Each structure stands twice: as C-alpha cells, then as structure tokens.
C-alpha cells in the first residue's frame, strides 16, 4: 500500500538519506524511480529514464525545435560526458521483458506506447534500445529493479547532495534538477563543438541548453502524470554544509 509522505516525513527522509555528490562521477545517472536500493554507490543524478531517457530528450529536442541532429554523434557525446560507454546507465524490472533492455523502465514503456506525445518516432526509440543493449554487452550497467512502485512523494533536488529513495515502508521519486542542469549545459557545449547538431542561424549554446531543458521538463511531466498522479512535490535545496530547505510546491496533476 502506497504511503503518501507528509512534510515531516519528507524532511526526515532527506535528513536520513542525503549524501555528498562525488564530483568525479556527478554526470553518471540513474532514473527517477524510487525502487533503487539505498546503495552507497547510487548515482546522485536522477533523470527520467536514466541515459535512455536522456537520448530521448535530445532527439525530441531536435524535432521540437526543428534542427538537425546526428544520432550516432549524439550518442558519442553522451558517452564522452559520462566518461565512456561503460558509464551509461539504464534499468529494467522483474516485471519487464528481459529480451529487450530498458523495457521494464516505466518512462520508456510510455514512450513506446505513444511516441508522438514525447515528440519522438518509433524508429528513434528502437535506436535508443538497440544502442543501450549494445552498451550493456560492453560493460554498461543495467539495474534490475524489483517490486511495485510505492513512491509517496516527488523530490526536486538542487545542490551538491544526492538523496537515496528508500524510506521505512515508502520510497520517493527523485529528480536532481541541479545536476541535470549542469550536465545539460555540458552536453549543449559538446553537441555544438562536435557538430552533432546543426542549429538555426545565430542560435548558440544557451539556445540549445534552454531547448533541452524545456523538453526534459515536458518528458518528466508526461510520465509523472501516469506514474505519480496526485503525489505531493517537494523542492529540496541543499547548502554546502548539508543543511537544506524543503518546501512543498504542489502536487502532480
């Protein structure tokens, strides 16, 4: 049974589950899924769909903003940003079809069911799944998550601390907005430098970064409406000391 967290429980979860971001691995990702175990090596950067979701964002940004993108070069840029193909991350679960990697991820499942809502085409999703499968065969990590979703809140995090999702008999969706923004700025710079994208005239890194950010938010909300409907949303802003400000900012509609 899902337990909806109140303000006090959310604060206690953050206090007990916070951990310092490792600057050397800060761009390695996990999904926002609350079923990850509270492992000491859990990546702090949490984004919908992990790196499969990231590729989907980049492809959807090109379509939404009508610019050209080279999928192979884009994949290589993402690999470079995370420190090599072995550092790509994705997940499935015990209820998923193990014949196709990433198929257990709810975010990817929803994309496959209705690509147009995410500004994607089926062939782009198949490209992502194929490349993720290839990466796993070469040593990239695919985490198998177990059990049903029991998330009781959504946490939007900023600052140099991450949060582990498991708490008593509950768990939470976590979006590390601060690290997502930092990684997206780096991606925007490298996508342009590598000529993986061809932007409209006079458009620059800031333009691409803003476009990627907008599509990321759109993808997150499309999936949240399906997987986190009616859950409270909290912002968590960390100071360098580990102190934090927690504020309820609404709920998933």
Please give the count of helices. Answer: 7
**Poorly predicted regions:** 96-100
- Main sheet properties: 5 strands, mixed
How are the strands of the biggest sheet laid out side by side? 9-10-7-12-13
| pLDDT averaged over residues | 94
Q: Write down the Rg.
A: 17 Å
Total E-strand runs? 13
Overall geometry comes to globular
What's the assembly state of these chains? single chain
Measured as a percent range, the helix fraction is 40-55%
Based on helices, strands and strand pairing, what is the structural class? alpha/beta
Give the termini separation.
21 Å
Please, how many domains?
1
| Strand residue content | 15-25%
Order of helices and strands: HEEEHEHEHHEEEEEHEHEE
SSE map:
Elements: H1 7-17, E1 18-20, E2 29-30, E3 45-46, H2 50-64, E4 68-69, H3 71-82, E5 89-93, H4 106-113, H5 122-137, E6 141-145, E7 151-158, E8 161-163, E9 166-167, E10 170-176, H6 177-193, E11 197-198, H7 205-227, E12 232-238, E13 244-251
Parallel strand pairs: 2-3, 5-6, 7-10, 7-12
Antiparallel strand pairs: 1-8, 4-11, 9-10, 12-13
Helix pairs in contact: 2-3, 2-5, 2-7, 3-6, 6-7
């Amino acid at each position: 049974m899902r337990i909806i967290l109140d303000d006090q429980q959310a604060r206690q979860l953050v206090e007990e589950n916070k951990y310092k971001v490792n600057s050397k691995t800060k761009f390695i990702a996990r999904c926002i899924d609350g079923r990850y175990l509270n492992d000491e090596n859990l990546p702090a950067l949490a984004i919908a769909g992990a790196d499969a979701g990231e590729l989907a964002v980049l492809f959807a940004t090109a379509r939404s903003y009508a610019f050209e993108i080279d999928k192979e070069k884009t994949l290589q840029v993402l690999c470079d940003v995370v420190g090599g193909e072995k550092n790509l991350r994705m997940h499935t679960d015990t209820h998923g079809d193990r014949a196709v990697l990433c198929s257990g991820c709810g975010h990817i499942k929803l994309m496959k069911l209705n690509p147009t809502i995410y500004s994607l085409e089926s062939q782009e999703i198949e490209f992502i799944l194929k490349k993720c499968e290839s990466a796993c065969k070469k040593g990239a990590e695919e985490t198998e998550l177990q059990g049903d979703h029991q998330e009781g809140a959504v946490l939007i995090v900023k600052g140099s601390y991450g949060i582990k999702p498991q708490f008593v008999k509950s768990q939470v969706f976590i979006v590390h907005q601060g690290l997502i923004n930092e990684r997206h700025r780096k991606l925007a710079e490298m996508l342009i430098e590598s000529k993986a994208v061809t932007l409209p005239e006079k458009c620059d890194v800031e333009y691409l970064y803003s476009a990627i950010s907008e599509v990321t938010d759109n993808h997150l909300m499309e999936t949240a409406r399906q997987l986190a409907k009616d859950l409270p949303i909290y912002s968590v802003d960390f100071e360098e000391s580990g102190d934090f400000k927690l504020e309820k900012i609404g709920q998933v509609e």
